[in-house]
């Protein structure tokens, strides 16, 4: 149900066309907000925006490209006005043993997961500072709270996102702006589905056996659902979370405590 106690606000969600990002965008619209969806492929974010033409707008940009991001934010402002809430959801994961992680892979993981978060946050903050109110939610990962083998570059980037979250939360604490991170465990998305299919193809295991590899770290014995992550983000963006800042909130069935 839309929140009738606060006026509609403009949220920008990166990686907003599918999976967790799409669930977040829809949760924010249900709260009564308007949302700019930012993604690398315009056709993907447009497909979702067309389902909510009065409340969503689609723009294309690579979050690691500051010029593209600036243009995308300006297009969002032209449609819905100043940005009040930013959800840095765009991300990418790649696995490789550390000694086979070349500089190209390392830089790619940092560019999408960490540098992109920095670029988009710098693009959004002037509007929030001018308004004296804002919400920044970074979708990190349990990989930002603990270590996993064979994803050292991804873990390093997500740990960096949490460090940035904490530092910026203190910097903005008296500006009416909160900065938090949400850290999902393995979530029911196309990425995980593709990974399960890859394991089946490479190892000959059944789909159930491959799926078990992803749920065994979750004490609840299941994958997290995108809506569960979205609900946490929507709460952090709302008025009842005004005293919550600098936090890294796990949405992982108790995997990280």
UniProtKB/TrEMBL annotation:
<comment type="similarity">
    <text>Belongs to the short-chain dehydrogenases/reductases (SDR) family.</text>
</comment>
<dbReference type="InterPro" id="IPR036291">
    <property type="entry name" value="NAD(P)-bd_dom_sf"/>
</dbReference>
<dbReference type="InterPro" id="IPR020904">
    <property type="entry name" value="Sc_DH/Rdtase_CS"/>
</dbReference>
<protein>
    <submittedName>
        <fullName>3-hydroxyacyl-CoA dehydrogenase</fullName>
    </submittedName>
</protein>
<dbReference type="InterPro" id="IPR002347">
    <property type="entry name" value="SDR_fam"/>
</dbReference>
<feature type="domain" description="Ketoreductase">
    <location>
        <begin position="9"/>
        <end position="173"/>
    </location>
</feature>
<dbReference type="GO" id="GO:0032787">
    <property type="term" value="P:monocarboxylic acid metabolic process"/>
</dbReference>
<dbReference type="InterPro" id="IPR057326">
    <property type="entry name" value="KR_dom"/>
</dbReference>
<dbReference type="Pfam" id="PF00106">
    <property type="entry name" value="adh_short"/>
</dbReference>
<dbReference type="InterPro" id="IPR050259">
    <property type="entry name" value="SDR"/>
</dbReference>
